[in-house]
Each structure stands twice: as C-alpha cells, then as structure tokens.
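Dear Dr. V.,

Thank you for agreeing to look over these. As mentioned in my earlier message, I'm a first-year student in the group and I'm still getting used to reading structure tokens, so any feedback on how I've presented them would be very welcome. I ran two proteins. I've put each sequence directly above its structure. The first is here:
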Amino acid sequence: MLTGNQQLRASGRHVGRHRGARLKRRAELRVRTHKAFRPCSKASRGAVGVVENLLQQEFQPPAPNRCWAGGITYIRSSSGWRYLAVWIDLFSRRIVGWTLDARVDAPLVIEALNRALGHRQVEPEQLLIHTDQGSQYRANNYLELLQKEKITCSMSAKGCCWDNAVVELLFHLETGTGPR
C-alpha cells in the first residue's frame, strides 16, 4: 500500500513531506494506527505447563540458593549452532549450573539444573527457580523433576523479557552486545 505522498509522486506530482502533511491536516485526513504494543499485559492463557510469576522482578533474594533464574542462548561454532543453558543464583549473580548441546530441548535445561543442584548446598523446598515460558521449561519431564525435588517454579509473563533480565543481561554481555 502506498502512502499519500507516494501516490502523488506516482501520478507525476512532486510534493514534499511538509506540504503533504499540511494538505492532509487541511483535509482533516488521519492516519490509521495500530494498537500500541503493551508487553506483560496478560499471562498466557491455555498454554500447558505455564505457572504464575512468583518472582515479580525481585532480583535481590535474602540469601544464596533461594532464587535462581534460567535461560538459553545459542552460540555459533565451527561445527554448527550450539545451545547454552544456564542457571544463575540471583543473590550472588554467579552461574551455578550450565550445559552446552547441539539440541535445544528439555534435557538441555534438566542437565544444567542437575549440575547446579549437584554443585550447590541447596534446600530444594526453599528454592524458587524462574524462567521464561519456553517449551523446554513447560515440558513434562522438567516439571516432574521440579515436583520431585520440591522446587518452586515461576515463569515470566508472555513477551515480558524484563522478568528474566538478569539472564538476558548475561547473554548480552557474553556476546558483546550489552552495556559495558
């Protein structure tokens, strides 16, 4: 679809943008706009495995091993794409568990979580882990592991990357695209 100025130019009339804007105002023409994008307005309805956001952007837990955030990023290598899953302790901002694999699936995040649980002195009943709503975190085997370990799960609202900002910032710093 052509804009008003493009239509005038196509018909052989050359009109600058300021003159075009003035003519539109005089003719009381208005541009149809799309509804504004509002992230975080509603949680996903009907998606299987989605749980409530219990973290609520409280990125400073009172003690270590009380709140972990998880995420996945991809890395280009000489043998193709590799996927990195990490768990970060929000108290210390340290990576407590990670794994790298050629597949991005539930076993990727489960392996990283098992490594984190094995390396840290954790009381699972007091641990809250927070992720986005990726399919890996909604998979039955992942949710069953959390239930078995009595770990509380929290997920960001759909389209709300700020709820998992600590992990996202780590990935931007690692790739060199984040703040310095």
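The second protein is here, in the same arrangement:
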Amino acid sequence: MNLRAVVIALVLLQVLALAVVPASADGGDAEGDAPHNAVAAATPGSRFSVSADKQTVFDHVTGLRWRRAVAPQIMTWPVAEAYCASLPADVPGAVWRLPHRSELMSLVNRQVKAPTIAHADFPKTPKNWTWTSSALVAFGGGAYWIVSFESGIAGYSGPTGLSYVRCVR
C-alpha cells in the first residue's frame, strides 16, 4: 500500500467515525460560521426568556428562538434536518431548522456543571452530542459539526452517526 492510499484510508475513517476536534481548528464551516467563540458565551440571568407555554426559549443576545427540549430520540443527520423542518411553526412563516455550529456553540456555558448550558432555561438537556447544520469543510460536506454539552466542545460525525437534536428559528 503506498502512502497516498494510506492517507486516503485515514481520511475516510475520520469521516465515517465520530472524531472530536477543537471547534476552532478550521476557523469556520460551510455556512461561513466564524470560529465558535465569535458569539458571546452564554450567561445566566436575563439573556434568555422562556415562552409562556414553556416550549421555546428566546435568546436576547443572538435573536434566535430555540426549542426548549431536544427531540425525543437521537437520530441521523438527514432525519434530524427533516425533523426540525417538520415542526409546526408557532409564528406564520417561521421555519424550524438545525442550528449552525456557531449558533449552537453560543448556548455553551462553561461556568456551570455539565450539561454546559443554562439549566433553568434548557432543563433536561442531555450531555451527549447534538447536531448542527454546518458541514465540515475539510471533508467536502461528508461530515457535520456536532456539539457536546458534556464538555462544551465541538466535534464532527458522518451523517449516519446518531446525535441529539435541538431546533432553532
């Protein structure tokens, strides 16, 4: 086996397997997201407002509205994307979607114990990996960024991996 074949095999293994890398390793992703620290870190207090029906959370820093709970089960990336798109709009014209990497990373709060998210605003958040819509540029879109609320870092997974889903609009 020549060196080129070994390198190609290693790259394919990384795409197919879950790999953890620092979120800022490539400086961005396919959606043009800036490195994960470009959005202010989550802070407790008045940053978030929970809706009256307790189903959504408004982020006053980013202007995004989040589903308060994650999807009821882990799923592959294509199923996660379809799941968010299938959620009913609570406002006419508002479409739920998977968040970009920087959007999901903006929820990370390293000042609290795992899960690294505002506990009161996002109760029962699993510590495990959560999908983003951001394709990993290095692999030509064959892998997607995921965020761990155990450690507050980003990694990546191939689209057939299983992760949690939190939708945003």
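From my reading of the second output: The chain has three helices and seven strands. Helices lie at 3-16, 77-86, 101-105. Does that match how you would interpret it?

Kind regards,
E.
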